[in-house]
Design goal:
Blueprint: H1 4-11, E1 29-32, E2 35-42, H2 61-83, E3 89-100, H3 108-123, E4 130-136, E5 145-153
Parallel strand pairs: 3-4
Antiparallel strand pairs: 1-2, 2-5, 3-5
Helix pairs in contact: 2-3
Length: about 150
């Protein structure tokens, strides 16, 4: 049976990718009790293409928002791989968004909204969360955005 979240994703035209395996010595998701700690997910699509560069240095806010949305899709893919059914998500508790930025770029919150908005669109009120949006000089693989998450599950 298709979950209601899977149905919503299909309605949005989203197919979750196969989660990217860790590229270093960590696990993609660590569970303690009813909390999943999802390691940072970068702005990589199902074909392996990464949205790269720095906001304020050639990457505009709309491209940054698209990169953050990819991070959200990858977070959901990791959560589904960990628990099998996205309907078991009780709520997204916290996000930390890292935005590769030039020193004078100050719109990190607008960029990370690409992730936040998508999670609310896909999960409804379960997708509402606390959040930080942080500017950083560089991310792995020159990714434009990386987002980590804490998710409560049933």
């Amino acid at each position: 049976m298709t979950s209601s979240v899977d149905a919503k994703l299909a309605e949005l035209g989203i197919t979750l990718p196969t989660p990217t395996p860790p590229l270093a010595n960590y696990v993609p998701v660590a569970r303690t009790g009813n909390l999943l700690f999802v390691s940072g997910q970068i702005s990589i699509d199902a074909a392996g293409k990464i949205i790269t560069g720095k906001l304020g240095g050639g990457v505009d806010v709309e491209t940054g928002r698209a990169a953050a949305k990819l991070c959200a899709i990858n977070i959901l893919a990791q959560v589904k791989a960990a628990i099998g059914d996205l309907d078991k998500v009780v709520r997204v508790v916290k996000l930390v968004g890292f935005v590769a930025s030039t020193p004078d770029f100050v719109d990190q919150p607008k960029v990370v909204n690409g992730c936040s908005d998508f999670l609310v669109e896909a999960l409804g009120d379960k997708g509402r969360h606390a959040r930080s949006a942080v500017g950083i000089s560089a991310l792995p693989f020159d990714a434009a955005v990386e987002v980590e998450a804490i998710v409560e599950v049933a």
